[in-house]
Amino acid sequence: MSQTIAVLKGDGIGPEIMEASLRVLDALDCDLTYEFHDAGLAALDKHGTLVPPETLAAIATHRVALKGPLTTPIGKGFSSINVQLRRHFELYANVRPAISFPGTRSRYDNIDLITVRENTEGAYLAEGQSLSEDGETALSSIRVTRSGSERIVRYAFELARQKGRQKVTAVHKANIIKTSSGLFLEVAREVARDYPEIEFQEMIVDNACMQLVMNPNQFDVIVTTNLFGDILSDLCAGLVGGLGLAPGSNIGSEVAIFEAVHGSAPDIAGKKIANPCALLLAAADMLDHLGMVEKGAKIRGGIREVLENDREQVTPDMGGNGTTDTFADALVKVVRR
User: Fold this and answer.
1) Are residues 212 and 268 in the same domain?
2) Which residue ranges traverse the bilayer (predicted)?
């Protein structure tokens, strides 16, 4: 039976990389139907809002969305579109794989790790932030709940079990932030006891940063709170060549949104040189979520093959002379075999 997904093309380079990604999905005969909806700057121009109600309704109806990079205008009272979507749909788990691919600027080989970041609480809440009238003192609260911590840690262990991973590392700062980070660590220890077959490790966040730079292969699945996860997942992307290879999944109990993590890159929009790999990898994760694991693996394997054997078709940021379209052409040929 055909699966309908909501598609948000995005701003800047978004429409270009989305077109490339949908071509690859079509070449795999995924039996997907695309329903296109506006968000970001295009929606603001057309509807007067960054995320129209029609877009939210479509995502809720279809339960799965593929999203290109969206631009939130700076200032003018606009809040982050990504934060809006995460809160609206209670997308509590942000999942960021970091996988080595050939022919990239990575300093390491054979990296294959996943960061699982709590997505809805922690240090990123707008509530509890204030600035004194004289502008001299800013205050911000960190809200961590037992239920939110239990939910994200259990998600990480279930993901590890599903994907045959051997270890989960809980990253924290409980030695200093003894309340919020301490609660997260306490819950992580409790949940870990339910998964005796998976090794559990706990690591202070500053040490985790150093260890990731020195020896990233020691990590398998990392689970952590919102702020630490935001930082660590970008660090991990840097280990494998940058955000151009960084997909993200935002998972809730009812809805899942898959996205390229990088920005909309308006400086190269329309030049057809944008690297589509992050959105393609997000599409592969979406296929896994929909139960089409073999097709998701085919995208990842195809990207690896093109990067290794067809360098002329690769986009300039990865050292090639190709375009967004030539990369998609090469990948379509591979996945159709």
Assistant:
1) no
2) none
Active site positions, annotated: 124, 173, 206, 230, 234
Q: Evaluate whether 271 touches 83 at the Cβ level (below 8 Å).
A: no
Output Rg (C-alpha) for the chain, integer angstroms: 20
Strands 112-118 and 3-8: unpaired
Domain count, the chain: 2
Spatial strand order in the sheet of 3-8:
32-36, 3-8, 64-67, 256-260, 247-251, 93-99, 112-118, 221-224, 167-172, 199-204
pTM: 0.95
Q: Residue 77: what pLDDT?
A: 61
Q: How far apart are CA 243 and CA 104, in angstroms?
A: 12
pLDDT in tens, 51-104: 999 999 999 999 999 999 998 887 666 778 888 899 999 999 999 999 999 988
Residue 101 in any domain: the answer is: no
Provide DSSP, 8-57: E--STTHHHHHHHHHHHHHHTT--EEEEE---THHHHHHHSSSS-HHHHH
Q: Residue 300 and residue 328: Cα distance in Å, rounded?
A: 13
